[in-house]
Design goal:
Chains A, B: Its cofactor is Mg(2+); Zn(2+). Two copies of one chain form a homodimer. Chain A is globular. The first copy, chain A, is of the alpha+beta class and about 300 residues long. In chain A, strands 12, 13, 14, 15, 16 and 17 form a six-stranded mixed sheet that branches. Chain A has a four-stranded mixed sheet with strand order 6-1-8-7, sandwiched between helices. The first copy, chain A, contains seven helices and 17 strands. In chain A, helix 6 packs across helix 7. Chain A has two domains: about 120 residues, no CATH class; about 140 residues, Alpha-Beta Complex (Nucleoside Triphosphate Pyrophosphohydrolase). Chains A and B meet through helix 4, helix 5 and strand 15 of A and helix 4, helix 5 and strand 15 of B.
């Protein structure tokens, strides 16, 4: 068991697999990798991970397995080609299960990252049997890193959706909010998809204004995280709010408030008296709050000091 | 004419349109915006911009125009709803023309940004008349910010592909490279798509190793830019190279070399004796080089000083 108390990285970060781009596009090299006795299949149950004894389950490829039905995730640090099986019909259960989230605390970080990549790609293939250009049937190409249309020849590539997730800061406090569907007490950083035609910084400013009525400037990037539900790139930022008035978009946000460093510190520590329940350390929001504390905390009255 | 000598932003950055998310999802508000006498159509010629007298051409909507065939880009600073027309068949000419790039020097920055957003979205619609899940016909939804399948009901959203574009730095020099297809002498920062399952920093490290054999650490984010050919989010970074040995992937990179601050300064100034020809200021690579100079330059021997 890899406890959250020692975790240094958000979930799905820290992959060590070599993605071997030169093999993906070379059918002879791909065929060799597939018949390599060291090759392994990363077992998935639908989109869920399969874990045993603190590791993801890797199996030898079946004798009748066909390379065309597989995705080459890469070559691992033990020099083993690692494949995942592409499934035409995953059924309707494409939303993240508790099991798919819990894996972040059950296996080492590099295996969490491997599962994340596999999940995003297997999901993408299952959603793209047809060509968006002509409606024809598509088939996997480039070792599972593309699909090609058999009718019009269009190539399609796995998508990765950039999402901004951010804190607005105002006079030593940061803004946290909650969605209607979240567990009671849970608050986190606000977030939203980056749209065509805007920068990361412009997306941060737009989302904070849309969701909370807060205008920010001096947006700075903090860190990023791949998030495989289904395939986001979380881009964590902090911006300076012009004032602390809130106008919430109630369709998106149920509630939001400004929290000081003491409150954030208590929330990250899991203190039951904290002003909110923080997301778990697998979420980049936990690390964004932690990073804010590391920078903003020391300039404030320390936790426990008399006010 | 807005000359490059006064440009502070990369092309397509600095949009001022209000994207009015609350109108997109409200058919009554959308219908009102469409019949607003102030509403305007952003004229496009296929995917090319149409410019006159230093501005993009905006026209009143035709009397027989249908809201279903239009994308609401947003409300401009003059309180005008701005639409673009969705075109089912753009023909085969979807690659960027010289005209589509030249617009960055012909109209104000906020209009360049508006064109970029319109181009990415109109292109995306033209490539998605069919549902990737079931092959059924799709139709625009949410004021052109989604498509919905008439057969299986799947919703599809415009894609934005995160791309890392980066400099490796080693002892006061940075790495620039060129692709086979570029004009003679042109070098720039290396770049590549962020893949599912990796962070921005991991993508930077992977691409620099794949393309140039360079290992980097301490990757830091510098700035971002939307790039509408067809719909990328350019994420510009600098990383510290472990050494300066190069192993080029000749399929991707024709040549690459380490350039010092004097050379970069000469290239950005357009000096004909510079060691390379830099990309134009509409490209984020120009700004990345400029930002590197601003930080790295002063610590080195100034240009013109005797060695």
């Amino acid at each position: 068991m890899h406890g959250t108390e020692t975790r240094k990285l958000p979930g799905f970060v820290g992959g060590t697999i070599d993605r071997v781009d030169h093999i993906r596009t070379n059918p002879a090299l791909l065929a060799s990798a597939f018949v390599d006795p060291a090759a392994r299949l990363l077992l998935l149950d639908g989109l869920d991970p399969v874990e045993a004894d603190g590791h993801l389950v890797l199996e030898p490829l079946a004798a009748d397995a066909q390379v065309e039905d597989h995705l080459l995730l890469g070559i691992d640090t033990g020099n083993r080609p690692i494949f995942a099986r592409l499934v035409a019909d995953l059924g309707p259960n494409l939303v993240p299960t508790p099991r798919s989230r819990a894996i972040a605390d059950l296996v080492p970080a590099e295996e969490v990252a491997l599962y994340g990549a596999a999940r995003s790609l297997v999901h993408w293939h299952a959603r793209h049997p047809f060509c968006s250009v002509c409606g024809g049937a598509t088939a996997p190409a480039k070792a599972g890193w593309a699909r090609k249309c058999g009718n019009c020849g269009s190539e399609h590539f796995p998508r990765t959706d950039p999402v901004v997730i951010m804190l607005a800061e105002h006079r030593g406090r940061i803004l946290v909010g909650r969605q209607h569907s979240w567990a009671p007490g849970r608050y986190s950083a606000l977030a939203g998809f980056v749209e065509p035609g805007e920068t990361i910084e412009e997306a941060v400013a737009r989302e904070l204004f849309e969701e909370a009525g807060v205008r920010v400037r001096d947006v700075r990037y903090v860190m990023s995280q791949p998030w495989p539900f289904p395939s986001s790139l979380m881009i964590a930022c902090i911006g300076q709010a012009e004032d602390d008035a809130l106008t919430l978009d109630q369709t998106e946000i149920e509630d939001a408030f400004w929290c000081d460093a003491d409150g954030v510190r208590a929330a990250l520590a899991g203190d039951p008296d904290a002003p909110f329940s923080a997301p778990p350390p697998m979420a980049v929001a936990w690390h964004l709050l932690d990073r804010w504390l590391a920078v903003a905390g020391p300039t404030l009255v320390p936790s426990g000091a008399s006010a």
